[in-house]
Amino acid sequence: MGARLNHGEDDLGETHEINVTPFIDVILVLLIIFMVAAPLATVDVPVDLPASTASPQPRPDKPLFLTVKADLSLALGEQTVARDGLASALDAASAQDRNKRIFLRADKAVAYGDLMEVMNALRDAGYLKVALVGLEAAPAAGAAQPSQAASQPVR
């Protein structure tokens, strides 16, 4: 004679666990996509920027870069722009938002007067918020720190 000891509970019990393997797969695929796409979203106009020891400011989501190349040509983002068409190109790129900050990059070889001409063109176009872009550099080890009085702004 046979005896049954499990009293009729042959049903498999439900498992209340979440299978996270597909979730991890999706996250890894998204990570790879962003790692490939992130370098493509940066401005890639070759320019030799001067170094700066100022503390870096936070970068906006969609910055608008205006680059002055060594040959004094202008590039808005990655597209070359003529000086006489700068205002219309800025209006198109910023959706005519004249309060948008323009990040101005210039090659080391660009003379100060030429850079001021570009800044005057920006002002004439109505774009008054201009930020200068430079490379980050550590202060020289032997350089003396400026005095507290020297670091106060002149009014």
From TrEMBL:
What keywords sit in the KW lines?
A: Cell inner membrane, Cell membrane, Membrane, Protein transport, Transmembrane, Transmembrane helix, Transport
- Do the record's keywords include GTP-binding? no
Q: Which residues cross the membrane?
A: 20-41
Which Pfam families does this entry report, sorted A to Z?
ExbD
In the record, which residues are listed under signal peptide?
none
Tagged with keyword Cell membrane: yes
Task: Cite the Gene3D superfamilies for this sequence.
Answer: 3.30.420.270
Quick one: where is this thing mainly located? Answer: membrane
- Spell out the subcellular localization from the entry: Cell inner membrane; Cell membrane
State the superkingdom.
Answer: Bacteria
Bilayer topology: Single-pass type II membrane protein
Q: What does this protein do?
A: Involved in the TonB-dependent energy-dependent transport of various receptor-bound substrates.
Similarity-based family: Belongs to the ExbD/TolR family.
How it assembles, according to the record, is: The accessory proteins ExbB and ExbD seem to form a complex with TonB.
Q: Which NCBIfam families match?
A: ExbD_1 (TIGR02803)
Q: What is this protein called?
A: Biopolymer transport protein ExbD
What is the protein's species of origin?
Chelatococcus albus
